[in-house]
Design goal:
By secondary structure, the chain is an alpha/beta fold. It has a single domain, classed as Rossmann fold (3-Layer(aba) Sandwich), CATH 3.40.50. About 35% of the residues lie in helices and about 20% in strands. It is built from 9 helices and 8 strands. β7, α8 and β8 form a beta-alpha-beta unit.
Length: about 300
């Protein structure tokens, strides 16, 4: 059917204005940061920078908290960017949009170590440590540790799913109450092929094969902590909110993971981003359809927590 006219016009402008890809990882990081910088930053009652203790040193983080009195539910958030790109500051507009949509839920966005400097398992080790730190400091942060989970988009969704897997079995002693996986990568065995675009949009080469190689650095992509879709038995994993985008090559694997979770008895809210593309979380101010999907995510998070 294709994208609706308003959203399609936005996507055409966005692609026309995209700078050419850079040659180095530094170029890619600067280009990614420049792409995120103009996004609107919705107001949040409390925004506070934190430092968490990581396995290899301090982890910068940022708390987004509603004005509600008393302990509130929370999510420890891992940004996207193909593991190698992005940081807390760059993803500030995205987390603000999610916080505004979710209402009385706090979000703690975390900087994890990135490849090529620190490949797998360093980002996952940091994600697990960040969750443990946030729940240990819940009283200080105004959070309810029994209603605190993990979340992430794209590569960060892979980290959130893998962290939930590593922390499985600890629900009664501090395991995640929820996993929020937003257009996640959950099968890293191969770069998924892009289908012909119904609107003729040209996204250019993805570069995912290179960036995936930087993250894995020789690790077996069939390991469940790398490809959570391949976990032998998903039973006992926390409830999930999974959001996809219709024209995202990652959609089939994310929907397959949601189906596997459901088949194992794990409650799942699946939000199908009809008419949308990978990366839509920050685009709500530019297109109604993206705003609707972010609102659906926020409502599902509120209901789950």
């Amino acid at each position: 059917m294709g994208r609706d006219p308003e959203y399609l016009a936005f996507m055409r402008r966005r692609l026309a204005q995209a700078p050419p890809p850079g040659r180095t990882i530094g170029d890619a990081r600067r280009r990614h940061a420049a792409d995120l910088a103009p996004l609107p930053r919705p107001g949040v009652a409390v925004v506070k920078d934190l430092t968490l203790d990581g396995p290899a040193g301090p982890l910068p983080a940022r708390l987004y908290r509603p004005a509600a009195a008393g302990p509130v539910p929370g999510l420890v958030y891992f940004h996207g960017g193909g593991w190698a790109l992005g940081d807390v500051e760059g993803y500030d507009p995205v987390v603000r949009a999610l916080a505004a949509a979710a209402g009385d839920v706090a979000w703690v966005s975390v900087d994890y170590r990135r490849p090529p400097e620190d490949p797998f398992p360093a980002p996952l080790d940091d994600a697990v440590a960040a969750y443990e730190q946030v729940t240990a400091r819940a009283a200080e942060l105004g959070l309810d540790p029994a209603r605190t989970g993990v979340a992430g988009d794209s590569a960060g969704g892979q980290l959130a799913a893998a962290a939930a897997l590593r922390l499985r079995g600890r629900r009664g002693t501090g395991g995640p109450a929820l996993q929020v996986l937003l257009y996640p990568a959950v099968d890293l065995r191969a770069v998924p092929p892009a289908a012909p675009d119904p609107d003729g949009l040209d996204f250019g080469p993805s570069g995912l094969d290179r960036i995936l190689g930087l993250y894995l650095a020789g690790a077996d992509p069939a390991r469940p902590e790398v490809s959570p879709l391949l976990v032998p038995d998903p039973a006992g994993l926390p409830p999930a909110v999974v959001a996809t985008a219709e024209y995202d090559p990652l959609r089939p694997q994310a929907e397959a993971y949601a189906a596997r979770l459901r088949a194992a008895g794990v409650p799942v809210a699946l939000i199908t981003g009809t008419g949308l593309d990978h990366g839509f979380l920050g685009w709500g101010a530019y297109a109604r359809r993206a705003a609707e999907a972010v609102a659906e995510i926020g409502a599902a998070v509120r209901a789950a927590l």
